[in-house]
Amino acid sequence: MTSQKIRKAVFPAAGMGTRFLPATKATPKEMLCLVDKPLIQYGVEEAVAAGCTEIILISSRGKTTMEDHFDANPELEASLAAKNKTALLEIARSVSKLAKVVVTRQPEPLGLGHAVLMAKEIVGNEPFAVLLPDDIVDAEVPCMKQMVDAFEEVGCSILGSEVVEGDAISAYGCLDCTADPLNPRLLNVKNMVEKPKPGTQPSQNAIIGRYILTPRIFEMIEAITPGAGGELQLTDAIKALLLHEKVYGYSYVGKRHDAGDKQGFLRATVELGLKHPILGQSFRSWLKSQSF
Ligand code: UTP
């Protein structure tokens, strides 16, 4: 158990995004625009709202637009200032002021565990958050903030979790767990099964793309061998961590969209479009007026 604060958030973003071809052939999946922001910005805003001050992007070749997005753009800012477009200027500036952004690269997409390992030196010896940018979580209290609050209670690794009905659980990492008697949102994890065959799942509690991990995870990733798909799997490393430390699941309150999938992205576009503070109302009226 540790009482250290969660200051750093790792964003694995070096994958190939094959489910979203052809859009992701030359454009990073993480830069696909959901309503008016790239996917990665939703995650970064969530991490900042949870108290993180340092964002660690795990990038790869051809993905420099991601880091440019969080950098200042003096030419654009000067042009907007000259035209007195103050609201737009504020929008452009605010993105680069969100947090300190550090970029490191994963030379080859050797798996999520390997991507997280790339952050080892930058994270150092402190617990940290991991957010998968294609999981967009719409929640009143940002999902990572809920998890950081829980971490402050328990001081152990925490895996974001949600109940997935029926055989759909077979697409996820699944927790073998029991609800904690003191806080039913916390799940005592006994074991984990990656993509269980239908009917063999130990529970309906799936792992989503939100994690708080203790730094011992790096040792575990270094010790595991490639698993499913020849990749270094983060779930295998967390299973190894379970042998040394307590790990909790956390049933967050909110709604997740798998925006790395075309259907999930479309649904997220409609739902977040309807909730958008400026566009929402007119988008709703337009949708109602259509006879699809
Ligand atoms: P995904 O499996 O959703 O992303 O990994 P992917 O591999 O890019 O996409 P598909 O399945 O081919 O469509 C979740 C996150 O982990 C990152 C991805 O960039 C994504 O944000 N990732 C995955 C890495 O950074 N490195 C890897 O080796 C694998």
Task: Please tell me about this protein's structure.
The chain has 292 residues and is an alpha/beta fold. It has one domain (8-289): Alpha-Beta Complex (Spore Coat Polysaccharide Biosynthesis Protein SpsA, Chain A), CATH 3.90.550.10. The chain has helices at residues 39-49, 64-69, 74-82, 86-96, 112-117, 120-123, 143-154, 216-223, 234-242, 262-275, 280-289; strands spanning 8-12, 33-34, 37-38, 54-59, 100-105, 128-131, 135-138, 157-163, 173-179, 186-194, 205-213, 247-251, 255-258. The strands form three sheets. It has a nine-stranded mixed sheet with strand order 5-4-1-6-11-8-12-10-9. A hairpin with a 2-residue loop joins β2 (33-34) and β3 (37-38). The chain is globular and about 60 Å long. The N and C termini lie far apart (55 Å). The relative contact order is 0.16. Uridine 5'-triphosphate is lined by residues 12-20, 29-30, 58, 106, 109-112, 114-115, 132-134, 260.
What is the terminal-to-terminal distance? 55 Å
Q: What radius of gyration results from the CA coordinates?
A: 19 Å
What's the CATH H-level homologous superfamily? Spore Coat Polysaccharide Biosynthesis Protein SpsA, Chain A
Give a list of the ligands. Answer: uridine 5'-triphosphate
Classify the secondary structure makeup into a structural class. alpha/beta
Main sheet properties: 9 strands, mixed
How many structurally independent domains? 1
> What coarse outline follows from CA principal-axis ratios?
globular
Q: What is the CATH topology classification name? A: Spore Coat Polysaccharide Biosynthesis Protein SpsA, Chain A
The CATH first-level class comes to Alpha Beta
Run of helices and strands: EEEHEHHHEHHEEHEEEEHHEEHH
